[in-house]
């Protein structure tokens, strides 16, 4: 079993590696990629909200104001608080687009 996984951002087509001890956002920064905006890095501002399309992950604490339980079940999470358990495919879209996507799923 590997401790490093491949992260694929679908909108810009960027690839980078992430260990299970790193958040998705931290791995992106260390790889020198720019596909997710960076805010507080602590799960409180909601700026780094992404849609996980495939893969498994664990989450640290996130503000329920930005990610409620239903959003989390749909794979909408904050990149600063997501830790991969497998390779992940995700996309970043501005918050208004993510909200629209969530409404379509409901």
UniProtKB/TrEMBL annotation:
Q: What protein am I looking at?
A: Ferredoxin
Please list which residues make up the signal peptide: none
Which residues does the UniProt record annotate as the domain 2Fe-2S ferredoxin-type?
A: 6-96
GO MF term list: 2 iron, 2 sulfur cluster binding
Q: Which domain of life is it from?
A: Bacteria
